[in-house]
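Entry type: protein chain
Record version: 2
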Amino acid sequence: MMRQLIRKIIQTVSSERAYYWVAQISSHHRIQASPGYREAARYAMQELQSAGLEARIISYPAKPDQWYMSSKGFQEWECQGAQLWLVLPHEEELADYQAEKLSLCPRSWPADFRDRPVDVVLLDRGADRAAYKGLDARGKILFIRGHVADYQDWAAQETGAIGFISDYLREIPGSRTRKDLPDALNYTSFWWQHSPDEAQVFGFTLSPSAGDRLEALCREMAAQHAENPDLPAFPQVKGFVDSRFYDGEIEVVEAFIPGETEEEILLLAHLCHPQVSANDNASGVAAGMEALCTIKQLLDSGEVPALKRGIRLLLMPEFTGTYPWLEELGPSGWARVLAGLNLDMVAARQGGGNGPLTLTGVPHALPSAVMDIAGFALKELQKQGPIAGADLGVPLFNSVTVGFSGGSDHFILSDPTIGIPTPMWGQWPDRGYHTSADDLSVIDPFLLATSTAFAASYALILANLSPQNLDQLLLQSRERLHSSLLSVLAEADLDGGDLDMVYQEYLHLLRHAKDCLDGYEKFFGSAEDWPEIKQRINREQRLLEKIAEGAWQNFTEVHAPDFVYRSREVPPEYDYLPRRKYLGPLRKLEDYCIGKPERLAAWKALEEGARKQLRSAGNFEALLQYNMDGQRSLFALAREAMLEAHDGSLEYAHAYVQFLSSLDLVEIL
């Protein structure tokens, strides 16, 4: 039955309509809280309404003193134009906002130096402020080769500079270097204000090739000046930024197909990002819109039964639209949303630096059955390629299923304090990510249709999930546990490695797999036959135990026949119970340090010290937050986070929790 449903969805999806929407949405300069974003939101709403869907825009204040749960607000930004010209030693246009929106850092402050040339000072010793002690750049522009964020907090304030020029392009291992995209512009934003006394600066962006030319010019003029002090030491530019900040609004687009009950399934995608930005994330938005249109078409034609649970589509500015939407919905509303799916970058042509379509899981702190449904839908979509003489199919696209990682709005929804288990369907690496190279030419209509079909399948199966689906879905749980165990055991370090840690991970995976099966109660707990369903789930949990025990026994018989697990004593300094005092995960701790320089300094010291030693500090911190329920010691919750993230340390977990406690965000029981 589910297989037939997915085939109907594949046949109904319109890749042409979805592709058209990618083209139209990517033509808008969709900076969060800006007129361009608002235009894109109105366009998406009108298209959904034209398709016969119930759609609306919800607006929330965009003000710096406005908080939504754990997220601080910021002002709206508008720019009418900006240009930068090199005037010495020769004339050359360097940037024009009207021609290329990414040539100006979004959220730049206004400036006008058209009537006076300004020196360009090259910072060529990295982002260490100590390397520029005593530098006087008053009234000048700093040319930096790194990300503006590494300089923004100190460079302008300490040197007196009025703005930045940057040719930074983020390199992605295995996908791109500066040389791969020599003419692309990096999406580099100042984001929002952290404090009223920040330097009000602007920023212009150059491509790597243009930056290399400017660097050569800076060095050449410096060398000539050293030989002849009468010659100018710096290149000079003229330009302007016609922008403004003001209290405004941020918009969230909602579309809804009601069901027979108040329960809902949520599809979401972020609508923001600069003009062009096709895969990130016009593709996710278009896939979500087309998924809802496909579902409506199948419902209207009677090809699928009426929905038991409603399906809602949410299009919002990434992170900053989700927090206010959840705050307005409230805990009783969160309980009605049984599951979500985040669509983020779903259609770039594979190969050439673009990675597979990736199904990112739900954190272990929120065990759920939704990965069974997602895994089933993905497996069916992988059968689209026919094989001669066989009633089978082969994948026509690359895909991979991985554990939880953050990076988008599923990170908020999957927080246990919110309780909406939300996998992410995305793509990584993405060669054009956050650059002007992410244009319409990277979009593959087939992958766009496939992603749409995945989203529609996931939502429809969950909306009408019944006990008759269980046998097919429980197979996914077995396969996922078996695959995870084999991966852990195959990668175990047998040459002096910590087998105790391997054993803990084995237990961790088994416990999580069993907990996920209990997640079916969320869908069937009120059914009359729940006791019978629960018995089936209990049998399945015992089967998972046998699968895990067999894998562990085979491993130890071959590699560690004398292994005996030795539990570790909890060090006294980590034997305390932290409990968080906020709803929704923290993203920007700097927001809690505004006007408190000693706290900001403490966070920066932690950031530049122990935090910098982690491969993925953000993921580790998220998992710590999710587990911080006041029921487990710091030692226990840190161990859970380390096992899941394959990163982190007890020392950093302790320092991080203690810092949150100093901000009165965590209480120590």
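Comment: The chain has a mean pLDDT of 95.
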